[in-house]
Amino acid sequence: MGYNEYWEQIYSISEELNSLITAYWNDYSNLSSWQFWVVLFIMIIPLVILYFTVDRQRIFELFFFGFIVHMLWSYCDTILSLYKYFVHTYFLTPLLPYAQNMTTSLLPVSFILLYQYCTKHKKNFYLYTLFLSAFFALLGTPIEEYFGFVKFDKGLLPLHIFFIDVAIAYIAYWGTKFVLSLNQRSEKNK
Q: Per the confidence metrics, is the pTM higher than 0.70?
């Protein structure tokens, strides 16, 4: 098969897949389903909580940390769902990534608030991250699976989600600390 033939087939299959996902959403995940409203709730409520609880003096630092969590989880979720390891079966719209409510809102906001709490009160971020990650991965994802919001496949377990959660939070922490140290060096040189 030649270069152009590959791309013609990829476009054709992509259009067919998009049409199928849209039809699925219209039948099972639309505004008339209770699952849609749960997904919307999980998207909106953490953002409202963040609005009222974020330390506005440190907002750029906190949001930078949250942005790293959001981006890394979005990439991981894209890979996990693309290869059918971990699939979100209900979503807000077929136009956006399926786990948008989790990767855009619930996980980043939860970890932002944890980071804010730990750094403000001089608590061990690494230890608290283990507890929050265990809560999400070992309690939250089995509940999601029970109600059909997610599907595990190919041997992926909630324990794997726990390790991914911990790794992402630690990378976001280190990345934020690195950028803060660069900023401090820059201010000293002024």
A: yes
Query: Do 148 and 86 meet the contact criterion of CB atoms below 8 Å apart?
Result: no
Regarding whether 83 and 174 lie in a shared domain, the answer is yes
The CA radius of gyration of the chain, in Å to the nearest whole number, is 19
By residue range, what is the domain housing residue 23?
A: 1-30
CB 62 within 8 A of CB 55: yes
CA distance 147 to 151: 10
Q: How far apart are CA 92 and CA 85, in angstroms?
A: 20
Q: What is the largest CA-CA distance in the chain?
A: 61
110 and 146 share a domain? yes
| Each residue's pLDDT tens digit, 35-77 | 999 999 999 999 999 999 999 999 999 999 999 999 999 999 9
Distance (Å, whole) CA 169 – CA 115: 9
Burial 12-24 (b: 16+ CB within 10 A, else e): eeeeeeeeeeeee
Question: Both 87 and 8 in a single domain?
Answer: no
Neighbour-count burial for 151-180, b at 16+ CB within 10 Å, e otherwise: ebeeebebebbbebbbebbeebbebbeeee
3-class SS at 181?
helix
